[in-house]
Amino acid sequence: MLRILLVAIGLFSAAALPARAQSYPERPINLIVAAPAGGSTDVGARIIAGIAEKLIGQPIVVVNKAGAAGQVGWTELARAKPDGYTIGFIVMPGTNTVILDPERQALIKDDSFVPIINQVLDAGVVWVRADSPYKTFKELIEVNKKAPGTIRAATTGILSDDHLNILITEEATSSKFRIVHLEGNAAQLKETLGGNVDVAFDNVSGVVKPIKAGQARALAVTDQQRSRFLPDVPTTVELGFPTIISSSTRGIVAPKGTPEPIVKKLAEVLKRAMDDPEHGKRLDDGGLAVRPMVGAESQAFWNEVHERARKYVDWSKKRPQ
Question: Alpha-carbon distance 92 to 310, whole Å?
């Protein structure tokens, strides 16, 4: 009798999932952003939330949970009830390095989230002040190889994508920078434009305005294709360095265990929102390149970035300073 009852309960639960997905959502959805308001991830989140909530029929509320380079917000997201009413942004490789760095003792794991859809791939860029003596990427590398550890290279934080980009560049060019860790894009802009560091590794969206204003010079975009925001700047692949690839990639995920029909519905709605001309125009204004990836494609990209980040997190611990 008990076995029959358990089977009946299981059948009822399985049948209830599609019905629940059809009626979902019945109340507002929280969208966690593990960063302060005003940053590029937050801006992108608010743009897509404003469009998607009109399509899904419920408010999508952006909730900023900053702290510990994203660890606070991502931990809360992973611990949320997997019912589709709490979703959030992760940042690759930022989320990956938090998971992989043993010193952080992170509670989140590489399978803590279910991918819904990727929104942005913000390619890395190597840049200098407009009056810098370094005119090209190859010239920078040649000088760096001749005098290792003397060129000051700024990141936007320890184990950020920009830090990893420096390590990737060092490996590919057999050279060594003097790494200067700064807290975020604003500090990097200030110190580099002020002449306190020689070169900066950042993302296109973070420096496209100073470049267009003539304050800074981009030496290379660390992607396989040129940025449409900096169409005259060569890629590292074009310059003969095919392994120097780096970006800050931002995607929307749900806590592990969120029912597949709900994940699928969210992906469909968010993809429609990304296809909206308003979404593209507003991200263009911020220098953010839309790069949708859904489901298996998004998971495959996560896996690739995670393994790549693992290598350079390990290397960063062993690298002589």
Answer: 12
Q: Does the domain spanning 123-246 belong to CATH 3.40.190.10?
A: yes
How far apart are alpha carbons 194 and 200 in whole angstroms? 12
Which residue do the tokens 């791939």 mark?
121
- The reply to whether the predicted model has a pTM over 0.85 is yes
Q: Which DSSP string corresponds to 160-218?
A: SHHHHHHHHHHHHHT---EEEE-SHHHHHHHHHHTTSSSEEEEEHHHHHHHHHTTSEEE
* CA nearest to 48, candidates 259, 267, 228, 214: 267
CATH topology agreement for domains 28-121+248-316 and 123-246: yes
Per-position b or e across 149-164, b if 16+ CB within 10 A of its CB: eebbbbbbbebbbbbb
Q: What are phi and psi of 203, to 5 degrees?
A: -115, 155
In order along its 321 residues, the chain shows pLDDT tens digits of 545 544 455 555 555 555 566 789 999 999 999 988 888 889 899 999 999 999 999 999 999 998 888 999 999 999 999 999 999 999 999 999 999 999 999 999 999 999 999 999 999 999 999 999 999 999 999 999 999 999 999 998 899 999 999 999 999 999 999 999 998 888 999 999 999 999 999 999 999 999 999 999 999 999 999 999 999 999 999 999 999 999 999 999 999 999 999 999 999 999 999 999 999 999 999 899 999 999 889 999 999 999 999 999 988 887 776
Overall fold of domain 28-121+248-316: D-Maltodextrin-Binding Protein; domain 2 (3.40.190)
